[in-house]
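Preliminary data (for renewal application), zinc ion complex.
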Amino acid sequence: MKLLYLIALICLFPQSEENPLSSDNAGPRRSFEDIKREIAGYSDVAKKIIDLAIHGKAQNRSYERLAFFVDTFGPRVSGSRNLELAIQYMHKVLKEDGLENVHLEPAKIPHWERWEESAMMMKPRNYSIALLGLGGSIGTPPEGITAEVLVVTSFDDLHQKAQEAHGKIIVYNQRFVSYGETVQYRVRGAVEAAKVGAKASLIKSITPFSIHSPHTGIQEYQSDVPKIPTACISVEDAEMMSRMSSRGTKIVVTLKMGAKTYPDADSFNTVAEIVGSTYPEQVVLVSGHLDSWDVGQGAMDDGGGAFISWEALSLIKDLGLRPKRTLRLLLWTGEEQGGIGAEQYYKMHKENISNFDMVMESDEGTFMPTGLAFTGSDKARDIMKEIMKLLKPINVTDVFENGEGTDINYWIHDGIPAASLRDDLTRYFWFHHSQGDTMTVQDPIQMNLCAALWTVVSYVIADMDEKIPM
Ligand SMILES: [Zn+2]
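Predicted structure:
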């Protein structure tokens, strides 16, 4: 039986051994040595890009453009006038930059506003708790919710104390493990608290470090569970209330939130291109998101990613280069609410998915770059490792796993190769979604390096003889 199966396989794929890279429909028909030689041939172009970005007349440009942008428009939460003014501005300046096919593609995005909010500790002493309502939270009645606090350290702890939870305000004082793991308390904290009859939930901010700053972000209600108001509080206040309650001290808090959700708003994904010389219909997508939370300036999340993506097209244009495939800049809208703008873009364009060569998103900071994260086949990964060798002049050549990003995941699910920028994340979550996300945390030299990496990778992929194999 086994032998028969093997013979059948050999008959079905008679050529599969001759050309290890040719068995995929879209795969290149050349040997890996040929591909390596082709990529090594880009070393002069890569050096020119790096020089222009880091030492030449383009140095600090992405930083300076971003500084003007965030100082002018401020934070750009989904559904806000700030965001729409920022999008109209980008539409104008991308045209002025001489990019091609600059246009806006409509998307409907959530519109939530926090309005006035406060949390006053009434017992054991009067104290104003630093607070940021979570995205999408309902408000409280105008007089607020006054209730005793129940502090828990985990969902398990909450379930064990379920009998005591009814009518209380749950304070989550969970341990920070990693953003990816701990963020579930922000996302599901209200639902789990409501299930045991709590009136509201306050979540210790998802950050490893704090100077008394609350950090907002999206949270999700569940249709079969009552909605309760929910907000983030500082690490310091969560820990203080935890100490108080472990001493047996009764804590009473009055929570007031004016938060309100409005009908979905009209918005746009912003698009600009350098049209490919040979295969204009084929696309390498470079992206970041223009929306942010409604605090700070959204300079780090994700102004930096959006502006190094713009910079990639600017640098290529400045050098008079035109890759074989189209390099398409996408500045997403409604990312913070769960990739809402990107989802609509995907639905509108997925019929052309066979033309998508690679999707790239920078949305995890533009601090000191450490490499490129990649999602794709082993064959494609080997090619990415060769491309990253071109970044030897700046000593950032690593290729990591997990090239995902909220806005590009739709394409990844369909098997399109994807990459995201990797950088030093040490401080990222200190500022993330807080008043601290301002231009002050950005660094022009680090942004130059990120832009150089982003540009070399996107240009070479767009210009190679063949698409990256799936
Ligand atoms: Zn982001």
